């Protein structure tokens, strides 16, 4: 038993304020003794004392297999107090050792049903569950104020890295989900704004003017204001801007004929499609061969293939 004998001269003994004991008469329990000066008949009575204050036991590291076959090393401490020295000193041979072993087995039994996430995040709740299991047996041994503290849970290094990667992946997935929800919300706001502007031409005009005001703050940008009414009067479908001689967007591109001068001085135009030959002197300026007189150059329609080709403007001078 966790006890020391209290004795002194002439049968007198003294117990400190944080001590409590039992008195045995001829080996039989005869009462509980408290702090202060006491007397025991030499040869007939003995007094054994123990601490009545809170006692702490450091629990050794214990390797436990959790639910999911994950192995962790658990350490902690156990606090208790002797409430009944009769039971603590006489019913248990060594209550400190017995409490330590009871705590280790109870921790192993309780944690064996828990997952690694519960061990990491709910130590206090698990400790309360372990205390409930221990308190019933501790009361039979005269002990009270049971308090269990799980101080550390160490895992294998490879398992710890795997859990860190899993946590990182979960956080990244959560960030992507939040961003997607934000984008969807913004898209909804833009859609509602577009419908509102489309339903109110005046609001669209104000928005355009605000945009021009924002752009004009940049001194490197030149803003040319054009009245919106003028744009609407021009058709609203867009304005084609171009220099002199710019062709309409729908104009057809006609290939240019190849010109060859023969030794006798004749200039021959060759159709790019079928290579039919024409004497330029015969077709130049002829309304019969000019398919589009309004277009610069002469648009010649080939008599062989029916295709069009352009004959450049050529002046024929006669000597």
Helicity range of the residues? 25-40%
The H/E string reads EEEEEEEEHHHHEHHHEEEHEE
Q: How do the strands line up in the largest sheet?
A: 1-6-3-4
Mean of all residue-level pLDDT scores: 79
Query: Mind telling me the CATH superfamily name of the domain at 58-84 and 92-158?
Result: Band 7 domain
CATH architecture of the domain at 58-84 and 92-158: 2-Layer Sandwich
Helical stretch count?
A: 8
Number of strands: 14
Task: Please write the CATH class name of the domain at 58-84 and 92-158.
Answer: Alpha Beta
Indicate the structural class: alpha+beta
For the record, give the distance between the C-alpha atoms at the N and C termini, rounded to a whole number: 146 Å
Overall geometry comes to rod-shaped
Q: Can you walk through the features of this model?
A:
The protein has helices spanning 85-90, 95-111, 116-121, 123-140, 157-199, 201-216, 228-233, 280-283, and strands at residues 4-6, 12-15, 19-25, 28-33, 36-39, 45-51, 55-66, 70-82, 143-155, 258-261, 267-270, 277-279, 298-301, 308-311. The protein is α+β, with helices and mostly antiparallel strands. The strands form five sheets. It has a four-stranded antiparallel sheet with strand order 1-6-3-4. Strand 13 and strand 14 (308-311) form a beta hairpin. Helix 2 crosses helix 4. The radius of gyration is 53 Å and the shape is rod-shaped.
